[in-house]
Every structure is written in structure tokens, then in C-alpha cells.
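Task card 7
Instruction: Convert sequence to C-alpha cells.
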Amino acid sequence: QVQLVESGGGSVQTGGSLRLSCAASGYTYCMAWFRQAPGKEREGVARIYTNSGNTGYADSVKGRFTISQDNAKNTLYLQMNSLKPEDTAMYYCAATRSGPYCPVDNTAKYNYWGQGTQVTVSS
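Output:
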């Protein structure tokens, strides 16, 4: 099994930055960040393959967000820069232990989920 514990959410103004962390316990094949705003479906933000480090991003965050990992600490990160009000959402880290491919935006692929951390961007 995989346990995920998130931290780093908060409230910032437009143009600000936040760094989210997700500590994982257990083996993962790939990990990802999703977000869900009120009234909207959960959408993929970014994903990373644990072994290779290959990354993928949603078009809406490309160039502003960076997903990374510290395998020694078994921790996933999401650096969020140039934040916009549209980024306001509950952010979730997710993981799967199976491959071979991990899509950026497919919740069904990921079996393990964190509790979520709120990100609020004010204008």
C-alpha cells in the first residue's frame, strides 16, 4: 500500500508562488498532482515517473508549475509560480504502483490519494 501526506497549501495573491509537498510511504511507479475547484471535475496538473523522472503537464500550467521528486526522501513536490485566481482549487497528490504508462489527466489510473491541500489565489 501507499500512504500520501500533503502539505504546503495556503492563500496567496495573484502572481505569487507556493510549493506543495507530498510525502509518500511505499513503492510507486509514478506520481501525479490533481486539482479540483468547486463545481468542476478533478483535473490532472502534472505527473512524474518515479524511476525515470520524466514529467508531463497540463497545458494550463505549463511554464508556470514544476513537478519534481526527491527519491531519497520519497517526497513529491509541485512548485507553483505566477499563480492565477483560476489556480484556486483543492490539490491532491496521487500515486500508482502499476505501469507502463501514466497519463497526466486520468484519475482512474491512480489508486492512492492524499487528503488534499487547499490553494487559494486572490486577485
